[in-house]
Amino acid sequence: MSDEILGRGGVISKRNGCVVRPLxxxxxxxxxxxxxxxQKGFHQCPALVAIEEKCEVLSFVAGDCYDYxxxxxxxxEQALISAAQLLREFHDASSDFLQQHVSDKLVWMLPSRxxxxxxxxxxxxPYNLALNGDxxxxxxxxxxxxxxxxxxxxAYAIYCFAPFKTDVNDRLGSLEQQTYRARLFCDIYGVSxxxxxxxxxxxxxxxxxxxxxxxxxxxxDNRQLIENLQDGHHLAYLSDIEYLIENKRFISDxxxx
Length: 257
Ligand SMILES: Nc1ncnc2c1ncn2[C@@H]1O[C@H](COP(=O)(O)OP(=O)(O)O)[C@@H](O)[C@H]1O
Ligand SMILES: [Mg+2]
Description:
By secondary structure, this protein is of the alpha+beta class. The chain folds into two domains: 4-59, Phosphorylase Kinase, domain 1 (2-Layer Sandwich), CATH 3.30.200; 72-255, Transferase(Phosphotransferase) domain 1 (Transferase(Phosphotransferase), domain 1, Orthogonal Bundle). It has nine helices and nine strands. A five-stranded antiparallel beta sheet has the order 1-2-3-5-4, covered by helices on one side. A two-stranded antiparallel ribbon has the order 6-9. α5 (175-189) packs across α9 (248-255), α6 (193-219) crosses α7 (223-230) and α6 (193-219) crosses α9. The longest helix has 27 residues, at 193-219. The structure holds adenosine-5'-diphosphate and magnesium ion. Magnesium ion (MG) binds at residues 127-128, 141.
C-alpha cells in the first residue's frame, strides 16, 4: 500500500494506519514523554510504534483535523471547552515526568522556561488536535514540547483558540468575543488568579520568543523557517503582539476573577 502524504512538504505520511515522521535531535526525549503519558493513563496522544533509520513511526490519533480560518466544529464553544480540559489532563499527566527522568539527558527543540511545572506542548493549537464531532479528543505534533510553567503553554493555546489573531485569514469574532473565549478557557482549565494576571504578558512573551526562534532558525539555514520569514509569517505575530499590548487592560480585567 502506498504512503498517504499528511503534511509538511511531503515529509510526514501515513503508512499502514501509522504516522511516519522525520527523527530529530529531540525525538528520544519526546518518545520518553509519550511513553510516560501513556503510563499515566493519558492515551489521547500518539504512541511510539517503531524507529526506522531516519523516521519515527507513531500511532495515528483518530479524529477530524482543522486549520485556520476556524470554521465548523473547531469554532464551537464545546471544542474550546474540551481543548481546555484536554490541555489540563496533558499537563497533569506530564507534571512528574522531569522528576522521573532526572538522570536522563533530555534534549528539546525549544528552550526550557522557569518554573518547570509541567511539560508544555509548545504548539497547542487547533491544527494539532483531533476532534470527534465538536469535542477535542487527541493531540499530536509533539516536536515542540519543552519544560515550562503551565501559563506559558496556556497563553499560547488561548492566543490560538480565542483567537487573538489579526490576520484576515485567521481572525474570528470581536475583542469581546475573543476575551469571553479566553475567560472560558481559563475557567475550564482551572487557571489560578495569579496566572490570569500574567496571561497577556505570557502571550506577548511567547510570541516574541516565537519570532526570535524563527530568526535564529533561518540564520542556521532552516529552509522552512527561511520560507516562512519570506512569506511574512513573523509580521502576523508582530501585529498580534501589538493587538495584545493595546488591549491588555480590557483582556486582563475581563478574565481576572
Ligand atoms: N499521530 C498523528 N495522528 C493523526 N494525525 C497525525 C499525527 N501526526 C500527524 N498527523 C497529521 O499530519 C499532519 C502534519 O503532522 P504534524 O505532526 O502536525 O507536523 P507539522 O505540523 O509540523 O507539519 C497533521 O496536521 C495531522 O493531520
Ligand atoms: Mg502540526
